Amino acid sequence: MRLTYTSDVWWKNAVVYCLDVETFKDGNDDGVGDFRGLTQQIDYLAGLGVTCLWLMPFFPTPNKDDGYDITDFYSVDPRLGTLGDFVEFMRTAHDRGLRVIADLVVNHTSDKHPWFKEARSSKDSPLRDWYVWSDTPEPDNPDQVVFPDKEDSIWEYDKGSGQYYLHSFYRHQPDLNVANPAVRDEIARVLGFWMELGLSGFRVDAVPFLIENVDPKLAEPHEFLADLRAFMTRRMGGSILLGEVNVAYKDLVAYFGDGLGDQITMCFDFIGMQKAWLSLARCDAGALAEALRERPKPPKDSQWAVFLRNHDELTLDKLTEDERQEIFQAFGPSEDMQIFGRGLRRRLPTMLGGDLRRIKMAYSLLFSLPGTPVIFYGEEIGLGENLKAEGRMAVRVPMQWSRDGGFSRVKPARAVPEGAFGPERVNVADQKRDTDSLLRWFQLLIERYRECPELAWGESTVLDTGEPAVFAHRCDADGATVVVAHNLSDTAREAELRLDGLGGYRLTDLLVDGTTEVPDGGVVRITMEPHGCRWLRASHPDVAPEDASVKAR
Ligand code: GLC
């Protein structure tokens, strides 16, 4: 790893923090978060140690899908501020060393977008071909319907113009037709616009739908992604695409751009995430270990984005029905916690019953997994959900800054968590003062993650520990090694770590004080506390542990 390389390829060990401007901080006392409020909180985010903010859609919207239904790609929704406020925010974020990416939702527009209004006005409209129309759509395959609670087809009849239009998601979100070169040009223009205003890239919504559900079918769908990426790189080297690509590993490699790495820079590891939850439910490392062993290596400079929760349902769609039921039983047994028959509408701390030791272990595991961690705002304080909110909105609650909420000076427009997860119990201000808090734990994990680039950059190997409840792996890069172990169970466990090549080395614990010597044979036995976490830096006895890490940063 050359000295400047890891900062050129900044995303590879970034810490990405996803937030919705609408729920983060209200700066103008109307109960809705906005850019002015967010800008006030930048120092908090910088202090937490995250390196890249991912903004959920903040564009003008009728808000029927929480902003994922856009009516203007070149502006800011008036409820959240103005373009001027956006630029002030960007300037402040950059001043504090934070990069910013935003959702790119171009699989579809809102049906209220002027393009769609024009396109549906007549079959002869010049914009007709910007969307996907059919006189006789193929019969629906129920698997294609993403939101089965609201939709039973992906085609909707447009009475006015007498044809059906395609909508992969809700019927108010007609799919754009990227087979049309004018649409592809416009998408590039949108990217160019926001990069000019300082964005370092985009989280691309619904990527498989974007390149597949078009008419006529694209001969080379991946060429479109490669073209977009090339366009971005020409405009701004080091800009990235972070892709929502929830497909099997074998199909996913194509989205990175096979061996080339010239398409989606980072893909979310949806499979690893689902298997991690299965392991957590079973208190057994097996499922996660298997996923990591099967996970393809991303091409050079590409990366996996690892996460445990996001803003959507906790989707368990890639598990078997039995596995899904196991997780439902463990973490969301009542029906109102479940959604679409495939997921949970809860946040992590409530799923883990508020057990701080277990919650800390789960996040320690997340930060140690090979890849770039992505967290959803509020995870750092253990923010809960409000099941009274509709559907996926349950987890999109206002951030809790202080005992009285602190999100707004007036009543927040959104429902807030209650009881043990209400603001009086869960908030930033209290946790800042408490050295044992989850917030402090996150700060430590982020600091250690950044100090251990081996985790993100290295060659990772899952270790067989002889103890089913203990998940362990090692990451090696340029002669430096970090060994990590997590006890998924709530009882103490003994694990055996076979550390080839590390006989005679010392293991220094990076989270708590302590060292362990590795016997000459390279096999070390460790005792793990209930839900214990160990991040161990290996160093030769002649080298101080702090000198044993990969130096080139
Ligand atoms: C993505 C988003 C989700 C949205 C959908 C339609 O899956 O994550 O929130 O509803 O796309 O845009």
From TrEMBL:
GO terms for biological process: carbohydrate metabolic process. Pfam families: Alpha-amylase (PF00128), SupH-like_C (PF22157). InterPro entries: GH, GH13_cat_dom, Glyco_hydro_b, O16G_dom_2, SupH-like_C. SUPFAM superfamilies: (Trans)glycosidases (SSF51445), Glycosyl hydrolase domain (SSF51011). It comes from the Bacteria. Residues 18-414 form the Glycosyl hydrolase family 13 catalytic domain. Gene3D superfamilies: Glycosidases, Golgi alpha-mannosidase II, Oligo-1,6-glucosidase, Domain 2. PANTHER family: ALPHA-AMYLASE FAMILY MEMBER (PTHR10357), MALTOSE ALPHA-D-GLUCOSYLTRANSFERASE (PTHR10357:SF219). This is Trehalose synthase. It comes from Nonomuraea fuscirosea.
